[in-house]
Amino acid sequence: MIGAIRSEIRKVFSTRMWWGMALGMAFLAALIAMGFAALLGNTEMTGGDNNGQGNPFARMSVGTAQLIYNAGIVQQMTILFPLALGVLLITGEYRHKTISATFLATPNRWVVMISKMAAVALTGAVYAVLHAAASLAGAVPIITLVKNQSPLLDEPAVWKSLGIGIIAFIIWMLLGFSIGMLIRNQIAAVLIAVGATFVIQIALNIIFTIQEWYAAMKWIPGNLTTNMLVTVDPTAGQEVDPATRAQFFEHWWQAALVLTAYAAVLAVVGAWLTSRRDVA
Question: How far apart are CA 86 and CA 111, in angstroms?
Answer without folding.
Answer: 18
